[in-house]
Amino acid sequence: MGQIVRKPFKTYHHGDLRDALIQAALQEIELGGPEAISIKALARQLGVSQPAPYRHFADRDALLQAVTAEAFRQFNVIMREAIDKPGKQSKLSRFAQAALAFGLQRHGVYRLMFASRIMAGAPEGSELHTAAMETLALLIEAFEAPAVGLLRERQALKIWAGLHGIVMLAEQGLLTGEVGQISREELMDEIVEQTKLALTVALQAAEKA
What we know:
The chain is an all-alpha fold and 209 residues long. It contains eight helices and no strands. The chain is 64% helix and 0% strand. The chain starts with 16 loop residues before the first helix and ends with a helix.
């Protein structure tokens, strides 16, 4: 699957410090999650004065919001590639499997996006909110179903809940699949198929109503 784009440290030019801070923070989060971020440490790592980052970010939370928005944008590129790629699997299955792989392989960034309060604090219309809404739009598109009320949105929530549960439990070593003799990927596909069926039933019921 796609990889988070990484730029070498200390290669930014004058005026690019904002982006350099975001990319450096992404690398730190890859290793240690959002808790690893220190503006002071990033400034030292990039070879700039301690006050320099504050010309671009008011505080640590502002930096993390920008980093999370960038993570969502890069995540959306991966998801777009997944659902547009031809294959025997449905678009929804390809989306779910790509998102699962992302969560399992890049857990630090995944936690920043989906297991921290950064997203919850993003105001509507902000770059973070916009990028996250694009993720939701891609998931809804992957259902390949007509828009009827909020039926697709409700089923999308089921996909996210299942995906998040698998990723977080697996990261804690609490979901091996051994009890049910099923892999995490197979479990995700079962959730996808059950959700698609539930949406089909709901759409049929809506047509008869």
